[in-house]
Amino acid sequence: MNKVRLGFFSFTEITDPGEHRSYNEWHQLDHMPEQYPLDGVAFGQRWVSTPACRAARTVSAAPLDPIHYVTLYLMTEPVERTLREFRQLGRDLHAADRFHLHRRARLSGPFPLVGTAVASRVLISAEAVPYRPNLGVYVEVEALPVGGDAAGAAMIRERHLSPLCAQPGVAGAWSFADEHHRITVSWLDAPPLEAPGRLDPLVAARDAAAATRTVFAGPFETITPWQWGWFDHG
């Protein structure tokens, strides 16, 4: 059984183009490490939508179009206490002047885990996929219809996650959903810019078969510490 119960996402825009380096230094060296002492934070990673990744997006609608980064924390039981302590830690760090001010979360919050799959070639279990090294991710965000089935776990796994994992370069994929959005993350062990050509048709087929609307779909690169120069020249 998967110990992860939900993913806490932040789709983040940096509001001052000159603040990317300071944001990355703050988040990677200060903010993210402080989350791990919390009992229910199992893992976290953040990825960047470089200028090349932005140009390769399949769908980039409001309110997510301006984003530069996506962060995902995986949370386990005790979920309610973890979320309470996670939010309190954010307030405490802000009060201690250890929070980055030139950022705006365009979509943020906890999303229950509703489906997982893994590529047979990588041998590991679907539950282990996020902990395997990756070169990046391909992220889809769907707007769900009012009153629709937010989870639909069997359908998600069989009709979308498994086809994603059959594509070259995809190690595994997880879906998370609340009553408004479903977020699917595909972990990549091939260059992220190769993903759209392989995965875009699956996104289009999913939209055609389901009563959902994709509002974002595109690749992100894994962030290497101290290598934060993607936006230095424009």
Summarize the structure.
By secondary structure, the chain is α+β, with helices and mostly antiparallel strands.
Number of helices: 5
- The CATH topology is Alpha-Beta Plaits
Mean pLDDT: 93
Total number of strands: 9
Reading the helices and strands in chain order gives: EHEHEEHEEHEEHE
Strand order of the largest sheet: 1-4-2-9-6-8-7-5
Poorly predicted parts: none
Distance between the termini: 46 Å
Describe the structure.
With 234 residues, the chain is an alpha+beta fold. It has a single domain, classed as Alpha-Beta Plaits (2-Layer Sandwich). 26% of the residues lie in helices and 34% in strands. It is built from five helices and nine strands. Strands 1-4-2-9-6-8-7-5 form an eight-stranded antiparallel beta barrel. Helix 4 (153-165) runs antiparallel to helix 5 (195-209).
